[in-house]
Design a protein that fits this description.
Length: about 130
């Protein structure tokens, strides 16, 4: 079995290690920048007829809900359903944007990007299973 340093002089080993350290530092700096950019993601989505709008962050956390007078004319069940559906669309949009940010920084095939997209997909809202009474 050949090793990482087989056949290299001490200077070549030192240069290779220096490159590896520099690459790791660059990736750490990029990861920090990506994290800050993803933490700043906010998505505002309005319902189709503009009765309400919601704002979510990249993790899908609901940050704001704005209702119009038209929203208040809906039945409680219809308003609840509309809120969940609109929030779900906002969460998907925020997750998609976070995935694009990571992919732009690290590439589509990066394992960290795949992991992030897997988490986003796992958290995707599934309003079909919700009952309104």
């Amino acid at each position: 079995m050949s090793g990482f340093f087989d056949g290299l002089s001490a200077d070549e080993v030192s240069e290779r290690l220096a490159r590896e350290v520099e690459q790791a530092q660059q990736r750490a700096a990029a990861a920090s920048a990506v994290r800050a950019e993803i933490e700043a993601v906010r998505e505002r989505v309005s319902s189709p007829r503009r009765e309400l709008s919601v704002v979510v962050d990249a993790s899908g956390r609901l940050l704001d809900v704005a209702l119009t007078d038209d929203a208040l004319r809906l039945s409680p069940a219809a308003l609840g359903r509309l809120l969940v559906e609109t929030a779900g669309r906002a969460q998907q949009a925020a997750g998609d944007r976070a995935g694009r940010i990571a992919a732009d920084a690290f590439g589509e095939d990066d394992p960290a990007v795949a992991h992030l997209r897997g988490e986003i997909d796992a958290r995707a809202p599934k309003p079909d299973g919700i009952e309104y009474r």
